[in-house]
Amino acid sequence: MTLAVETQDLAKHYTMGRTLVRALDGVSLGVARGEFVGLLGTSGSGKSTLLNLIAGLDRPTSGEVKVFDRSLAGLSRQELSLHRRKMVGMIFQSFNLIATMTAAENVALAMMFAGVPRARRDERARELLDQVGLGGRHRHRPSELSGGEQQRVSIARALANDPEILLADEPTGNLDSRTGQEILALLEAVSAGAARTVILVTHDAPLASHLVHRALTLLDGRIVAESRT
To answer: What distance in Å separates the CA atoms of residue 94 and residue 207, rounded to the nearest whole number?
Structure first.
């Protein structure tokens, strides 16, 4: 079994005034290539912190993160940026689209930073928007799209550089339950055929339970339960 993500005794601590906050407090886990894993828990349990460390957006206080057996510990800022660009696609609760750009331009932007030629960027952006069900909406700006459509654009953007891993941080948090189910089903569909690894952060266990292969529950920075679905 090939591990896409592995953490060993991962901890992230910071201070708020005189209080020490243990956002993560010794998390060890392995996520296999192609696995769809849900991270469950209440707000403040450490879910988003764990995603940020896997993405290389932050560095741990102690412990280690490996992605396909490569440790992130010794990587420079430039190398971590390349890691995010090539290995990881991120999907956020708030969509994080650029308001002045069309759907296609938002998707193409991720490829521009990766040095993809313009003609190929434009072609792939259209292909990805078609794949996520937004054919005919390529030229619409975020303000002209519903919440569910904006999240579809963000999924297309996350797929732009064909990453091995998708990290989804509460992608249904700003959506109604029906649209949320559609977005989770889309995540499953775009990952299954490519054996792409997905780590999904959510507080809504029932919504995710029929999609994830395995659910990990975090509490106070620790994994306190694990179940297979």
So the answer is: 18
Alpha-carbon radius of gyration of the chain: 17
pLDDT tens digits along 45-76: 999 999 999 999 999 999 999 999 999 998 99
Nearest to 47 by CA among 207, 95, 55: 55
Instruction: Give residues with Cβ within 8 angstroms of 4, minimum separation 6.
Output: 31, 32, 33, 34, 35, 67, 68, 164, 165, 197
Q: Name the CA dihedral angle for 219, 222, 225, 229, rounded to a multiple of 10 degrees.
A: 90
Chain length of the chain: 229
Total of domains in the chain: 1
Residue type, 180: G
How do residues 121-165 score in pLDDT, each as one tens digit? 999 999 999 999 998 899 999 999 999 999 999 999 999 999 999
Q: Which residues pair with 8 in a beta bridge?
A: 64
pTM: 0.94
Residue 199 domain-assigned? Answer: yes
Q: What is the CATH number of the domain that holds 208?
A: 3.40.50.300
| Domain extent at residue 224 | 35-58+76-228
Whether 210 is in a domain gets the answer yes
Residue 5 within any structural domain of the chain: no
In a domain? residue 176: yes
